[in-house]
Amino acid sequence: MIGGGAAGLMAAGFAAGHGTQVLLFETNAKVGRKLYITGKGRCNVTNHCDVQQVLANIPVNPRFLYSAIGQFPPTEVMAFFERLGVPLKTERGGRVFPVSDRAADIVDALFSHVKKQGVKLIHACAERVLTQDGKVSGVLADGKTYLADQVILATGGASYPATGSTGDGYRFARQLGHTIIPPRPSLVPLVSPAGCAELMGLSLKNVALRVFEQNKKIYEDFGEMLFTHFGVSGPLILSASAHMRHFGSRDYHLEIDLKPALDEKTLDKRLLRDFETHKNSDLGNALGSLLPRKMIPAVISQAGLNAHGKVHSLTKVQRQALLKTLKGFTVEISGARPIAEAIITTGGVSVKEVSPKTLESKKVPGLYFAGEILDVDGYTGGFNLQIAWATGRLAGRSAGNQTREGMIL
Questions:
Q1: Exposed, middle or buried by CB within 10 Å (0-12, 13-18, 19+), for 304?
Q2: How far is CA 357 from CA 10, 63, 253, in A?
């Protein structure tokens, strides 16, 4: 077992449950490093929904995961962790967290389970997966050879490399003849070509976001976002980024509805009331009850108006321009932040070369894959950890079924 993250720990536990000897290679001093930072340190364990809803939230190769998630759906994941002594709660959008709001509780419970199953943890850097006669024969780690009948690669992607996700698994898989779909960042902050320095630090809540590719709407959502010096971030933006996969070859822009609870007619009436109250004021001073102070200059500028113009001098056409901007504040997007800042990596081992029923390689008998190393990924909301748990369980069980008396690495 190479990799002590979410998928690797789950796979190790289920493989060892068959009475098989399992060695778990992890380079970090502690297992589950990335788990500690998921869900802002709270660990969004899964999403409390059915299998079809999970698959609907996986934009890349969802059908490949049907067997894995069908055998270990969110309800079973939740029951598993509660049996390990971690009470869970469900929040808005079906997001599931530990009652304690501590990601460490998930890591500790899972690691304790793995140790009880007899898994041996080895703090060593795997260098290569060994084969003999076309089949897996072991692992070379820190110059030492470890023989095994089965090897599970659960090394993660290439995001957050400080947690150990350095992309080594891609190299191992490529050396064994597997096709690697080029890794790219997903669930990642977005860059605006002009930057958003004047709005930096401004957080917007309860706004609606629309994403356009070549002026065609491809995604919309409602929630929270944040302006930064380079562009935009926050939950809405991270989810949106998963739909934006052609930077460089296609144009993208966002439209933010700053007042989604009001249709245009109702919002126009609101503007007229505010303007009547502030008819002798500068426009920049008349929008304080409608917008955050930091947002006002940007909205007025985008509407093509003068912040120092008097409210009573505004024409209907100018008011309509302001109304349009309030319902669709535009942010041009030129790309995503580096993969090291992404929550997950999209791309990885081609699923065409992996059995969906066992997660065993179709090219190298005895080689299995679990988690983010595969070319599958989901949206925010617990779906990526659901993928990790489900693929880890399936790979572990499959390898364990094949190895009753041998070794799994």
A1: exposed
A2: 17, 11, 39
Residue in this structure with the two tokens 């023989």, named with its chain if needed: 147
Strands (E), 310-406: 329-333, 335-336, 344-349, 367-369
Asked whether residue 322 carries a pLDDT value surpassing 90, the answer given is: yes
Q: Kindly report the pTM of this predicted structure.
A: 0.85
d(CA 292, CA 175): 54
Predicted confidence (pLDDT) per residue in 175-195, tens digit:
999 999 999 888 899 999 877
- DSSP per residue, 190-253: EE-TT--GGGTT-EEEEEEEEEEETTEEEEEEEEEEEE-SSEEESHHHHHHHTT---BTTB-EE
Give the pLDDT score at 59.
87
Structural element, H or E, at residue 265: helix 264-277
pLDDT of residue 371: 96
Longest dimension (CA), the chain: 86
Question: Rounded to whole angstroms, how far apart are CA atoms 252 and 334?
Answer: 7
The whole-angstrom separation of Cα 81 and Cα 109 is 8
Give me the sheet containing 216-227, strands edge to edge.
329-333, 252-257, 203-213, 216-227, 231-233, 190-191, 335-336
Structure confidence at residue 159 as a pLDDT band (50, 70, 90): low
Nearest to 386 by CA among 374, 378, 398: 378
3-state secondary structure of 286: coil
For residue 49, give the amino acid letter.
C
One-letter amino acid at 239 equals S
Q: Given phi > 0 = left and psi -120 to 50 = alpha, else beta, which region is 210? A: beta
